[in-house]
Every structure is written in structure tokens, then in C-alpha cells.
Amino acid sequence: MESNIHNFHKMSINERLDKLKEFSNLTDDEMEKLKSWVMPMETADHIIENVVSRIYIPLGIATNFVINGKNYLIPMAIEEPSVVAACSNGARIARSAGGFTAYASEPIMYGQIQLVDVKDPELARINIMKNKKNILDMANTRSNTLKRLGAGAIDLEIKNFEDMMIIYLKVDVQEAMGANIINTMCEYIAPFIEEITNARVILRIMSNLTPLRMAYARAVFPAGLIGKETVENIIYAYKFAEHDVFRATTHNKGIMNGIDAVLLATLNDFRAQEANAHAYASLNGYKPLTRYYKNENGDLVGSIEIPVAVGTIGGTTGSSEISKIAMRILNIENAREFSCVLASVGLAQNFAALRALADEGIQKGHMKLHARNVAIAAGATGDDIDRISKIMIEENKISITRAREILKGD
Ligand code: MEV
Predict the structure, then answer these.
(1) Which of 64, 247, 336, 342 is the most buried (most CB within 10 A)?
(2) Do 233 and 159 fall into the same domain?
(3) pLDDT, tens digit, for every residue of 261-274?
(4) How many helices (H) and strands (E) does the chain have?
(5) Is 3 a domain residue?
(6) Predicted pLDDT at 367
(7) Whose CA is nearest to atom 2 of ligand 1?
(8) 52 and 137 fall within a common domain
(9) Which domain holds residue 59?
(10) 3-class DSSP state for residue 217?
(11) Is the minimum distance from the CB of 249 to ligand 1 under 6 angstroms?
(12) pTM, two decimal places
């Protein structure tokens, strides 16, 4: 089944669920969970500390995605209106020219070990390099799975900062997000490193900046669909972000709207990805993570280059039935495919935002959805939500007070 489901946004929730069931081959049990599963208090209490409740975030589905020739429906959990619709729109336009082409590199990341009180840095460096194989072998005793796959700790690098020495442990984490295994390895090899350097180790922790674990996506957005002027305007919008850090920050925020929503739906650590993306964007002065140009046919070509560190094993996904189903809907085979999806979502989201900004602006659409939220917050339910938000938009007066008045019949 294709992911360009006609009028998905106009369907009732039950109709959407039926389409989703068909697309993702969901079982009756999974359907039931999508409708009514709530994380038990005890489960929540095991995941974090001091639990008193759980919070709900709407889960939507972005349609229309084709990535490397495969159709995807994308689960997105987010509180902000317009994001899911915009993402589906971006994917629809890219789809008309074949969709997204994406690639994700090997999942190689760094752990860092901080050495202080290094009395003889040259000797310390020599001793570390002499023992490199030992150190890597030691680190690799921490994961039989990675060892079996010929992955795990693969190399060491050393940097000196004043009287400190930092050891970078390079680890191929395969299907993991990487934090746990890298931290475990760093803590395990630290005493041996102290011994051979006669120095003191303080921090032993993975780095969330993953410039070796990258994802790239590209798509063509035909001028025939978006108009020649919009092509020019989006390129201007991109150039604005290239030159101006204030704009680049908002530009990249739009990219992360999409990526974070997928990470949240699958209960992955979106803060890690936020830190990673923004740090990478700032390596040579803060820059936009996407680029745009016009090709020889006058169509817009967009691309994204973003570090992505996500895994398919070892995370929290399994503690939520909904996140497990979200992973089933995504239907990815491995972490690298997951990264390709995230990069494509980021590009679709960014393109859709720029298109709206470069055209009529985002407020018109946004206010419509905002008015619905305000109506709900004022206590409206069912048909009243649309009725009240429509009146508020017509009156150009969107506020809780006004929504309450209309609800009361004023
Ligand atoms: C809003 O959440 C995101 C945008 O501001 C992104 C952008 O300006 O590119 C619309």
C-alpha cells in the first residue's frame, strides 16, 4: 500500500486507524492499544523517579513519505499544531518527483575520558598508544554482541588541553543509540588508563556530538507544483539563514520539529538529538542544516546533512505499548534506515515551513489550529470545538475568555 492516503486529514479518527491498520498490518490487539492503552503508574514509576502521573501528547501520522523508493507512514508525537500537516505536505510535494533519497553512515561515535594531573604528557601519550590494542580489547569485553559483529571499540585518539589529556574512544555501536555501551566501556578502561599514565581520570562519558554518525537526505520540489516565485523565495529564505544566526536558529528549530516528534513517538532521547544537531550546526559558525538550490529545470532541490544517533535496541521504546506500535508503523529494518527517515522528515518539515513563510506566512493556518486548541482549553467538546474556533477566527478574537463566552451562548 502507498503512503499517499487520499484525504487522510479529513477522515474520522476511526477511519484513519483503519487505513493505518491496513498499511502497517496492525493486529486487533495493537489497534485496541492505540485507542486505549495507558502506561500503568507502576511502569512509569520504574522509568523515572518521583512519579505522580503520566502526561499525554497527541500522536499523529504524517503521510506521503517515499524514502529510497519505500513508502512510509511516520508517527509523530507533538503538542504544536500544523507540524504533522506541514510534514505530510512537504513529503507530498517531494513524492511527485520520486521522494527522498537518503543515506546514513556507519554508526561510529566517541566516548571521552578526561585525564588530569598528567605529569609527563609525552610519556603518557606513548604509553597509551603502546597499549592501544589492550585498551580496545578491554573495552570490547563489555559487549559480546558488538564483538561478535566485529564492531565495538575500534580506535583511540588523544587531544591535549592545557594540563589535561582527553582520550577519544571511537566505537562502532551498530544498532544501539550508543550511550550505555560507550559509557560502560569508558568507565571500565579508566582505571587501566590511570595506571599506565600515572594520572587521574575524572569524566568518562560518551559525546552527544556525532560527526561520524551522519544522515543525508535530498529531494526535488518541482517548480510546477510550488511555483517559480516560491522556488526563488525559498532560496532567499535559505540564504537568510546562511548569513544570519538568528534566522538559522529558527530554521533549524523547524527541522527539529519533525525529528523530535518522531523521536518522542518512539520514546527516544530527543534531547540528545537536539544537542547533536545544534552542536554540528555550529562547528563553523552556526549554520542551517539544510541547503537549497535551483536545478537546470528550475525545480527546487533541498538537502539535509545532520548527525543522527538513534538505535533500534536498548532504548526505552519497549516500555510503552504505543511507542512499540510507532516503531511497527515506521517499519524500519535497522538504525541506519531510521536515521534516513529522520533526516527526510527534517527536510520535509523545513521545506514546508519555508514554503509557508515564503508564501502567505504561517499565521493564517496556525491561528486556525490555535483557535481549536483555545476552544478545547475553554471546555468545548465535539462539534463545539469547530463552531467556536470558526466564530473566533471570523471575529479575529482568539482568546479563552471569548471561547468561554461563545460556549455559554453569548
Ligand atoms: C515553528 O515551530 C517553526 C518555524 O518557525 C520554522 C521556521 O521558521 O523555519 C515555522
Answers:
(1) 342
(2) no
(3) 999 999 999 999 99
(4) 17, 10
(5) no
(6) 76
(7) 254
(8) no
(9) 8-105+213-359
(10) strand
(11) no
(12) 0.91
Cβ of 252 below 6 Å from ligand 1: no
At residue 370, the pLDDT reads 82
The predicted structure's pLDDT at residue 256 = 98
| Whether residue 101 is found in the same domain as residue 223 | yes
Q: For the chain, state the CA radius of gyration.
A: 24
128 and 20 in a common domain: no
Question: Which of 173, 189, 206 is the last residue before a domain boundary?
Answer: 206
Q: Is 369 in the pocket of ligand 1 (CB under 6 A)?
A: no
Closest residue CA from atom 3 of ligand 1: 254
Cβ atoms 34, 83 nearer than 8 A: no
- Determine if ligand 1 sits within 6 Å of the CB of residue 71: no
Q: How many residues are there in the chain?
A: 410
CATH code of the domain in which 341 resides: 3.90.770.10
254 lines ligand 1 (CB under 6 A): yes
Task: Supply the residues annotated as catalytic.
Answer: 80, 253, 269, 366
Total count of domains within the chain: 3
Query: In the structure, what pLDDT confidence band is assigned to residue 55 with cuts at 50, 70 and 90?
Result: very high
Q: At what angle do helices 83-95 and 245-265 cross, to 10 degrees?
A: 90
Tell which one of 83, 251, 359 to mutate to probe ligand 1, the residue whose CB is within 8 A of the most ligand atoms. 251
